[in-house]
Amino acid sequence: MVKTYSMELAGRTLKVEIGKVGKQANGCAFMQYGDTTVLCTATASAKPRDGIDFFPLSVEYGEKFYAVGKFPGGYNKREGKPSENAILTSRVIDRPMRPLFPKDYRNDVTIETMVMAVDPQCRPELVAMLGASVSVSISDIPFDGPCAMTQIGMIDGELIVNPTQEQWNTGDLKLTVASVGQKVIMIEAGANEIPEEKMKEAIYKAHDVNLQIIEFFKGIVAEVGKPKHEYTSCAVPEELFAAIKEVVPPEEMEKAVFTDDKQTREANIADITDRLTEKFADNEEWLAILGEAIYQYEKKTVRKMILKDHKRPDGREIKQIRPLSAEVDLIPRVHGSAMFTRGQTQICDVVTLAPLSEAQKVEGLDSFAADKRYVHQYNFPAYSVGETKVSRGPGRREIGHGALAERALLPVLPSVEEFPYAIRAVSETFESNGSTSMASTCASCMSLMAAGVPIKKMVAGISCGLVTGDTDDDFVVLTDIQGLEDFFGDMDFKVTGTKDGITAIQMDIKIHGLTKPIVETAIAQCREARFFIMDECMSKAIAEPRKEVSKYAPKIVSIQIDPEKIGDVVGQRGKTINEIIARTGVKIDITDDGKVSVCGEDQDKINEAVNMVNIIVSDFEKGQVFTGKVVSIKEFGAFVEFAPGKEGMVHISKISRERIEHVEDVLTLGDTVTVVCLGKDKMGRISFSMKDVAQN
Questions:
Q1: How many whole angstroms separate alpha carbon 651 and alpha carbon 640?
Q2: Which residues contact 364 (CB under 8 A, 6 or more apart)?
Q3: CA–CA separation, 400 and 377 (whole Å)
Q4: Domains and CATH numbers, the chain
Q5: What is the pTM (predicted TM-score) of this model?
Q6: Is 492 annotated as a binding residue?
Q7: Are 125 and 174 in contact (CB under 8 A)?
Q8: Is 119 annotated as a binding residue?
Q9: Cα angle at 148 between 144 and 149, to 5 degrees?
Q10: Mean pLDDT score, 388-409
C-alpha cells in the first residue's frame, strides 16, 4: 500500500511517499520538495561482515544529469565517477547518521540517494539528506533516529531557511545543521566572516526547524516503520576486560598512554599488546577481539583522566595549544610556499598561479561546466602517520579536508578584477597527529600571502574536542585535539575565520547530539585559539601579502575593450589573436564582457601584446603615430601592418619629402617604418604618411 505524507517546510511542500518504489530495499522513501525529486534507499546485509572492528556504512549521493535536462559532458554520455559535490554531500549525510547506529553493529549498510529531478527553488542535497533519514528510520535496520537536517542562507543580514540554489550561491552563509532528539548532531558551514553570535543564531534557527521535521518523521515511522531486526553483537565481553586488567592494571595503562610523543605511546601499547597476546595464546576467541579490547581499555583510561582529573595525555592544560611554528619560502622556484607546524602535525602548502583560462571546469547539477577559479587540494600520504601504503589517489577524506580549507579561504580572496589569476593551493601532509585540515588552512593562508595573492585578511583554524560524562552538564571541551583525543573523544569541532568572523565550520561527533552549552563553549574556545595562532605564530612568519607575485609566476595585465570589438581582436578564425600570440609568446584570454587578460613571463612582451590589442580596438584618429612593417608594395604606394590583421596605406607621395619615381627606391618588404595617421581615404582604408611624422 502506498502511503503519502506531507508538511509545509519554509514555504514549500515536502512530500514523502512510502511503498511506491524500491520495495525490496530494507527501507525506501520517494522524496519530493517542490519539484525536486530524490529516491532514497537503505539496505543492510543479513549477517555481520567477518574480521572487521568497525561499522561498514556506505553513503552514496548520485547525480543524474537528466534531472536538469542535460547530457553529461565529455565523450562518454553516461555519468561516471562521483563529482566532488557528490562526494562532499555523501559525507554530510554520513556524519550525522553514523553515530545513530549501534556501536557493536557490523552488518554492511548502504544508503543510496539518487537525484531524479531538480527544482532550482529546492536544493537536491537537502532533500537527499532528509530522505536518507526517513529511509533508514522506517527500515528494520537498527537506528536511533530519525534525524533531520536544515540549511540556512543569509542575504543582507537576513537568515533564510532552506534557501534556493541562487540564494545559496550568492549569499553570505552556507550552513547545514542536523539534529536528533533535542540536540545538534552535525554542523557544516561556509561563511563570509559571520560573527560568532550571528552564527549561533543561525544554528539555533536551523535546529528549531529540525525539531519540527523530526516530529513529522516520527509520525511516518509510527505508521509504516518496520520492527528493528535482531543482530549479532560484536561488543567486547566484560570477562575479557577483567582478565586484561589483571595483567595490565589501570595505573600501568595510564602511564603507557599519557605521553606527549605519539611514537612512544604506540610503542607502549605495542608492548602491552604483545604481553596480552602471549597471556591469552590458548584462547582463540579472545585473541580475535583482543585488539578491540585494548583499544576500548585505552579509550576508557584517556576519557576518565580527562573528564575527572582534567589531565590530557600530553600533559597540556584544557585550552592549551601545542607548540607552534611557521615559515614561508621553504620550497624554491614555486610561486608561493609555507609550512605550518602544530605539535606533531605539519603541513606544507604550495601555491601556483595561472591565467584564468586554467581555472577548473566543474560539471554538476548546480553548475554545468562552470569555472572554479580557486582550487585547494589536500594530500595525506601514509608516511605522515608512520605507515606503509600505496597511494591510490585522494579518497573521500582527502577531498573533504581540501574542500574545508578551500571554503575557509574563499571569503578573503581578491576579486578577479583585483587579481586576474587562477589559483591552486596544494597542502602536503608531512606529519599528522590531529586536525591536519586546520593546519592546512593556516599553511594555505601564509602560502597565498607569500605568493603575492592580495588576500583581504589572515585566516586561521583550530579544532576542539569533547569528552562527556553521564549527564548533559558533565563535559570537557578540549582546545587543539591531537589524534588520540580525536579517536577516543566525542567530537571534532573545527572552526576557521579571521579576526572579524567565521569563514567555515565542520563538526563531527560520535554521540547522540550536543547541547547548546557545548556548542557555545566550543565556538568560544575556537575563537580564542585562532586569534592566538594568528598573533603568536602566523603573523611572525608573514604579516601581510607580498606586493608582487614571484618572479617565477606568470605576469598578467588586464585591459577592458568594447565588447563589440572582440571580433576585431580575435580575427577571422582566430587569425589575429593567434598572430599576436605567435609574435609575443603570451597567452590571451578574452571574456564576453570585453575583459582582455594578457599573461606571460616577459613583461616587455606582455606590454607589446597589450599595445597591439589597444591599437586594434582604437578608432584610428588623425595624428596617431604607429610603428609597423611594410607587407606589400604597389605602384601607388606601400601597405604597412601596424598590428596583427591591421594595415594602412602610405601613398607614394607620402613616403618621402623628396619626389620619388618608384616605391622601391625607398622601401623594401619587411622594412620597419614609423607612420602618422591621416584618417581614412575614400575607400575607407586607413591612410598613413611617413614624411609628415617629424612634424607631429
A1: 11
A2: 63, 83, 85, 86, 370
A3: 9
A4: 3-154+194-224 (3.30.230.70), 238-309 (1.10.10), 324-468+475-482+523-541 (3.30.230.70), 555-617 (3.30.1370.10), 625-689 (2.40.50.140)
A5: 0.89
A6: yes
A7: no
A8: no
A9: 140
A10: 92
